[in-house]
Amino acid sequence: MEIKENTFIVTGGASGLGKAVVENLLREGGNAAIFDLADEQGQALAEQLGNAAIYCRTDVADEDSVENGVNKTMEAFGAIHGVINCAGIGIPAKVVGKKGPMPLDKFTKTIQVNLVGTFNVTRLAAARMMENTPNAEGERGVVINTASVAAFEGQVGQAAYAASKAGIVGMTLPMAREFAGTGIRVVTIAPGLFDTPMFAALPDKARESLQEQLPFPSRFGRPTEFAMMVRSILDNPVLNGETIRLDSAMRMQAK
Questions:
Q1: Active-site option among 55, 161, 179, 194
Q2: 161 an active-site residue?
Q3: pLDDT at position 177 over 90
Q4: pTM value surpassing 0.90
């Protein structure tokens, strides 16, 4: 899928991995619709990037909110050629902690944002991508989801997060098979430890401890490296129905 002159929705696009994706898409001549709830950051980024970017205040788990964002994207650019789902939350909590069982709303909120939100944006964006004229490879669009290595090796306190990310991995192949007839590919990236705002707040000692678990390179991934993987997926028409670990060969320990 060509990036130049094509349009991509990026959820969670105001910061972290999503922001790096947005910036890379525009460097390659594409258009980006930034779906986020961080109004100040999102609007500032869109203004900085110019006419090729718009900001859409969007709650990914809300049907009307996403539909409004999709409509705004169509009005601005006339078509949608891809969606990169980066929006997500991680609320650490044990199933049964010192204060008793995890509040159910913590679990359901994580599932709603991470899993339902990914599904919600994908289904509404894919319906528009199916209307596109196929390119030379027969492609009408590309869906790129963000899971996590926690989908495979979740830590204590990550039951909700790991379940939400495992759900994203689990729906990748069924979606790819369903969309195959319309020329829409579906690929998921499972990042390891990346230098995003979530990890920036950690004390230096905690950051060093985490980096020691990374075989090579023994450092947090850079958001720009995540964006490089997004570009590789967009460029390669044979990549489909796969979950790609992007983790420096990390395998998270039990404790």
A1: 161
A2: yes
A3: yes
A4: yes
